[in-house]
Amino acid sequence: MLMRLTTTLLTGACLALSGAAAAQTVTPAAPAPSPQERAQAEAAAVRARATAAMQARTEAEAAAKAGGPRMTAPMASAQLIYGDYSCTQNAWDAAGKRMNFIAKGVIQLNANGTYRYLDGNTTGRYTYDAVTRQLTWLTGYFAERGAAKTTFSVVEKAGQLDLELNTGTGTQNWSCGCGRK
């Protein structure tokens, strides 16, 4: 009987040791992808990025044709900042494939509803709607040049005017900034 107990204990110990050894064996790692598989994966990623870029471009073009991106929430009203706004025209140079910023002078906005442009001697009048953040040029340089769409915004606590001027050669986009806070 002692023999049988010893055999049973030895068998149990051997089984336990073999189980522990089996648990410690390392399973082989998945083989590394071949250069062809890596190239296929990279090509698929490039195609996915290109598809996303084309979709974004199509959506942007559709929004531009529909009058620009639509706001989902009403614009917050903004108190107009008075002072001197330095203006640049943002012009795309198709031949050089770059954006040019052409200095266009200074607009001086006064709290009394008057403004001066360029020489400082000619005064015009404007109105401002804080809810729509639109300026309307009543007299002076910008009124004489046609209805210029002008939107006011606050950028890092400084004022910015974005003008769209219709000219005989197309639309000019101006950005005008005022450093007052």
How would you describe the overall organization of this protein?
It contains three helices and eight strands; from the N terminus they run ααβββββαβββ. By secondary structure, the chain is an alpha+beta fold. It has a domain at 83-178: Lipocalin, CATH 2.40.128. Strands 1-2-3-4-5-6-7-8 form an eight-stranded antiparallel beta barrel. Strand 1 (83-93) and strand 2 form a beta hairpin. Keywords: Signal. Residues 1-23 form the signal peptide.
| CATH topology-level fold name of the domain at 83-178 | Lipocalin
Query: How does CATH name the architecture of the domain at 83-178?
Result: Beta Barrel
User: What's the number of extended β-strand segments?
Assistant: 8
Strand content: 35-45%
Integer-rounded radius of gyration: 35 Å
Q: What strand line-up does the widest sheet have?
A: 1-2-3-4-5-6-7-8
Layout of strands and helices, then pairs:
Blueprint (H helix, E strand, L loop, with lengths): L1 H23 L10 H31 L17 E11 L4 E12 L4 E4 L5 E7 L4 E4 L3 H4 L4 E7 L2 E10 L2 E9 L3
Antiparallel strand pairs: 1-2, 1-8, 2-3, 3-4, 4-5, 5-6, 6-7, 7-8
